[in-house]
Every structure is written in C-alpha cells, then in structure tokens.
Design a protein that fits this description.
Shape: globular
Number of helices: 17
Order of helices and strands: HHHHHHHHHHHHHHHHH
Distance between the termini: 28 Å
Radius of gyration: 21 Å
Number of domains: 1
CATH class: Mainly Alpha
CATH architecture: Up-down Bundle
Helix content: over 70%
CATH topology: Growth Hormone, Chain: A
CATH superfamily: MFS general substrate transporter like domains
Length: 425
C-alpha cells in the first residue's frame, strides 16, 4: 500500500484530521440538540404564567403538551427516512431556524383572538414544533454513524444524547429566571434568540463530507435482514420497555415524592433535579463503557453488557425504592434508577446504527417511535394500576418490565455491522 492509499484508508477509518472534524461535529450535535430540548421544555416552565393570563385549566395546558408529543411521535419514522436521504448540514440548519421561528411565534400568542384563539394558536405551534423536532435524534444517530467508526459510536451517541439531560437541567433555571423578571413572552423570545447562533455555527462548522464510505440507502426497509442479522425487533422491544421505565421518572418522580412519600414541595423539587444532573454524566459514561466493552469482548457481547447491567440495576433500584419505608432511601434509589435507565441511550442508538447500516436514520425513527409509545403509555397506566394495587406493587411490576427489557438484549447482535451510508453531509 503506497502513502496515498494509506492516507485514504486512515480517513475512511475516521482517523487523523477527519477524526477531529468528526468530534467537532458531535460537539455541535450536542449544542443543537440541547437548544432544541430547551425549546421543548421551556413551555412547561412558563406554563403557570400563561395559564394565569389566559385562565386556562390544567387540562387545556395539557392539550398543548400532548400536541407536541403526538406529532413528534408520529413523525419519527418519516423524519428518519428523510435523515437517510437529505444532507445533514442544510437539514439541521433549517430545523434550528424553524425552532427559532416557532419559539418566537409562540411568544406572540394571545395578541389576537383572546384566550380561545391563543389556545388554538398554541396547539398549532406546538404540533409544528413536534414535527420539526422529530428528526433530531434519528438525524443525530445518522451523523454519528457517518462520522465515526463502530467502535467509537457509543461515545459519539452518548455525547449527542447528553443533550436530554443538559437541556432539561438548563431550561428551568434559565427560562424561569427570565420569565420571573420579564414575563413569559420575553422568555420564549429569548429561546428563539438562543437558537439562531447554533444554526449559524452548525452551517459553518459541521463536517461537509462523511468521514467514512457510505452506500446509497435502499428504497424499502429489509425487515427480515435486520432481524436475521442483528435482532432489530428485540432491540425495538427493549427500547419500548426502557422508555416505559424512564418516562415514569420524567412525569411522576416529583408527584410520587410529594403525594406518596410526603416530601416538602421544595425538597421534592430539588431532589427531582438530581436525575437530570446525574444524566449529564450517565449518558456519555454509558456510551464510553459500551465502546470499551466492544473493544474487550467484541460487538456481539460488548454492546449487550452495558444495557443489560444498567437495566437490571435500574430495576433493582426501582424495586428497593418502591419497597423501602425510608423516604431518603427511596429518593436515592429512584434517582439511581433514573440515571441507570438514561445511561443506556448510547448503547441502543449505536447498536441500531450498526445493525441497520444504510438506513440507520429510518431505523432510528422506528425505534424512537416505539420508545415514545412506551413513554406515552407508562405515565397513564402506572398511576392507574397504583390506584388499584398500590404504588409499591405497581412500581415492582414496572421493575419486572425493566428486567424483561434487559433480557431482550440477549437476542440483539451488533457484530454483523454494515457500513454507514449516503452521499456527502
């Protein structure tokens, strides 16, 4: 092999200058996804002020939250299909600009049409936000698969997915501080202003081309091949249960501490922030451990070990938290369970990319669609069960589902990875 061939081989492996460019792209993914998450969570922070101004009920405000979640979930597969075929640089830049426009438009609701017109406008804007936010993580996973070799994709996805914790941790203090001093309209407008520099940075600094050779994606998904090669169905079923488990903490952790464990409101509020703060370390750490396990034991068991251990550990912590008589132990166990569940994200997304290769965007959308379905069911089903059988039993049953999610990984095999795909970025 001559020197030019050696250089080309190094670039295809993601080495040298291209490796640095790839990690710069991952850092930009973290920034872009974080501001997008602030845009999602920001409305919940200013919701009390909006409800007071327009005299909306909790049910009416809940409709606005549901409008986002419904379109976000439904658009997962179509947005993943789009991520496989459209260049990432203009696509992500356009998405961030759309988020900024929608955040700014949300700051104007109620300027005409009164409270009823404001609610209709808010529902429409949140539905549009859900549509434009849907490609975020399928496209992010596709970029990581394009830029980094398989043995580094756990770390790459872990850093990009850390935006979930970072956005959730930053939104309440930042948006809440602005809303407290200048009102909810200025707070939402500030989110829009925050997004604009990220769109420019992405357009200017995101990698222009893929660091690794890619194929053209097929027109249709080859389900039989995905399942036969890597157990994609097992992976999606496990992700459904992972999200089912995780969304209980998202929606019910605070209320459980207040209503069931009888914590004071502010003490419960501070404890509720701990899982999101811990996720800032848990998600990247989970990705790094997954990559380390791949190097030590190969892709088949390397990708399995971290999520199996984390999901089993989360189930044990949830069972302890549900059964203990100590409120402090319950809060600590549930915080640990949340961090362990969220820490598996990188393993799921890296494994999905390795199994599905040329269609990792579309496949990621399908997997995330299932995850969001689990996230929609658990916050409703768990308290309903608790009303009949009590919270300890209801949470113990959920812990059992977590163990099932861990066991499903035995059917997942990332060792027969395919090359990432599509023309340039």
């Amino acid at each position: 092999m001559d020197s030019e061939q050696a250089i080309a081989a190094a670039k295809l492996a993601g080495g040298g200058e291209n490796r640095g460019e790839a990690w710069r792209g991952v850092a930009l993914l973290l920034g872009v996804a974080t501001v997008g998450y602030i845009g999602r969570v920001g409305l919940t922070v200013v919701a009390p002020q909006m409800m007071a101004e327009f005299h909306w009920s909790q049910a009416q405000m809940g409709e606005a939250f549901s409008a986002f979640l419904a379109t976000y979930t439904l658009m997962q597969a179509p947005s993943g299909w789009m991520a496989d075929r459209w260049p990432a640089r203009p696509l992500f830049s356009g998405l961030v600009l759309a988020w900024a426009i929608l955040a700014g438009a949300t700051a104007t609701v109620g300027w005409w049409g009164g409270a009823a017109g404001a609610l209709v406008a808010l529902l429409g804007l949140r539905a549009l936000f859900g549509i434009t936010a849907a490609p975020t993580y399928p496209l992010s996973a596709r970029c990581v698969a394009d830029w980094l070799p398989p043995e580094l994709q756990g770390r790459g996805n872990g850093l990009a997915m850390a935006s979930i914790g970072l956005g959730s941790a930053l939104a309440p203090p930042l948006v809440g501080e602005v809303a407290t001093h200048w009102g909810w309209r200025i707070a939402l407008a500030a989110i829009a202003v925050l997004m604009l520099p990220l769109a420019a940075l992405w357009w200017r600094w995101a990698p222009h081309r893929a660091s690794r050779k890619r194929e053209k994606p097929r027109v249709a998904a080859n389900w039989r091949e995905w399942n036969a090669r890597g157990g994609f169905g097992f992976l999606c079923a496990s992700y459904f249960l992972q999200s089912y488990l995780g969304y209980i903490f998202v929606f019910w952790f605070y209320l459980y501490l207040v209503q069931v464990r009888h914590f004071a409101l502010m003490r419960a509020a501070w404890i509720t922030t701990l899982p999101w703060l811990s996720s800032l370390a848990a998600i990247p750490l989970g990705g790094a451990l997954s990559d380390m396990a791949v190097r030590r034991w190969g892709a088949r068991w390397g990708r399995r070990i971290t999520p199996i251990a984390a999901m089993a550990g989360a189930s044990l912590c949830l069972w302890i938290g549900a059964r203990t008589n100590s409120g402090a132990i319950a809060a600590g166990a549930l915080t640990a369970a949340t961090a362990l569940v969220i820490g598996t994200e990188a393993s799921y997304w890296a494994t999905m990319s390795q199994i599905t290769g040329p269609q990792s965007g579309f496949a990621g959308g399908l997997m995330n669609f299932g995850g969001n379905l689990g996230g929609m069911i658990s916050p409703v089903l768990t308290p309903w069960l608790a009303s009949f059988i009590g919270w300890p039993v209801a949470l113990s049953l959920t812990a059992g589902l977590g163990l099932c999610g861990a066991a499903l990984w035995i059917g997942v095999d990332a060792s027969a990875a395919t090359a990432p795909t599509a023309p340039g970025i």
